[in-house]
Every structure is written in C-alpha cells, then in structure tokens.
Amino acid sequence: MSNYGIKITKDGYDTSSASIPNQILNSSCNSLKIVAEGQTTISVNGNNVDDTVTISHGRSNIPAFLAFAQLRGSSTVSYPLNSYDLFSGSGEGFKGTANSSNIVFTATDSGTAYTATIYYYIFAEPSR
Amino acid sequence: MANYGLKISKPGYDVSSASDSELVYSSKFDTLKVFSSGSGSITVPNPMAEQTVTITHNLGYRPAFMFYTQIFDVFSGSVTSGYYMSPYTDPVGGDGSIMPYVSTTTLKIRYGAVHAPSGSVINYKYFIFYNKAI
Known about the structure:
The complex is a heterodimer of chains A (128) and B (134). Chain A is mainly β and 128 residues long. Chain A has no helices and ten strands.
C-alpha cells in the first residue's frame, strides 16, 4: 500500500514512527466491525440435552461472532464461549455456531432447569 | 443513522459502494475497544492444586475479554511455546480445565488442579474490553 492513509496512535507515541500495536487506528489494517449486539436467553431444561436460541443475523456471509453467558453456577459472572464443566460437576456448557442465516447458541445442564443469559456481538467480517 | 461519518475501504474497493466487510473502518460500527491488557505467569505448586489468577478491572459491569494461555502438552511433556485461547477444556473439562470468567470488578482465571505438573511455569496474556459481556 502506498504511504498514505490515516493513523491514530496511543498516547505517548509518535504517529510517524509508532508500530502498529501502538496505533489505535491504521487505515491499512482491517478492524472487527460490530454490526449487531444484544442480549438473549436460553431456557435450559437441565436434562443433559442441548437447549438453543437462534439469532437471525441477516448478513450475506457467515459472520464472526463473540459471546458470553451467565450460567447456573453464578449469577454474578459471565463465561466465554466454549465453557464446559465449570468445575461444579453439573455438566454446564455453552457454545455457539454460525451458518449463513443464523447464529445458534447452545446451553446444557445435567441436573437443574434454569435460564441462561447470553450477550453477543456479530461482526461484519466473515468467519470463514 | 444519517449518511455521514468516516469510511475507509480496503484496497481495490470504492468507498462509496463497498460492503461492510469490504471496509477497513466505518464510524457506523462500534469496535472492540481495549480497556486494559497484560500478561503474567503462574507456577504450579507442589503438590498440584487449583490456582486462580485475579485481574482487577473495577469497571462496574462485566466486560468482554479475551484470554490466552500456555498449556502443558502431555504428548511432548513440556509447556507449549504457543498460547491457546481460553477456555481450554481438553479433554473433557473438570480439573484439567483452564476457565476464565468475569464479574463487575475482576477477571478471574481458574487453572484446574491437574492442568500441569508441579513446577510448570505457565504464561498468559489477556485483553479486557470496554464492551460489555452482559
């Protein structure tokens, strides 16, 4: 790329010499753009079967995404995607997958019914 | 949203017609904004026991985060040079797991009691974002 564009550096760094990790924005580098975010829930039956919630993303690709979940073990903390067996022996689990239409989040519990709370981000960038 | 703001397209794309994913940046969209980042290490005690790393953020809400850690590779019998995105629950979770979770004041990472042998030094790296996790 030619030597033009936009750079914004972190405090204390010279824009003309700062390395990319010390830049907040560099127009030669892509960024993950959040096109949607939101909160949803899953009614977990507690029967060791996956329970799901489906989010229609409305994108023309299979988007990248990020999510966190409040699970049964604690109502005061959130766990990231692919959290399993949270040391409680209850078989708690949380995962997500994307296809061309939807993002599907899954929560599982082996013993107790409860409501899992999910917070998610959907990005403009494709996941494949 | 009105039709104004800042857009930067990828090389070869017309900024006036580029799709969202053909843009490097658009002020229309939020991004993940780093609140803090850092690194550290743990040394597995003798005898092996569960350990919890606590990183204080005090944001007052549960923030989104990313956590990466070295693991002990049982096949090579050594700590990996690479960092694995966590949670890391190989093979089935439980006391071999490395599990991060976030509250309104801290990011905690629970290293299970048998994730690595005594004396192993495990390095980690984290990012905490201003964006919320709930």
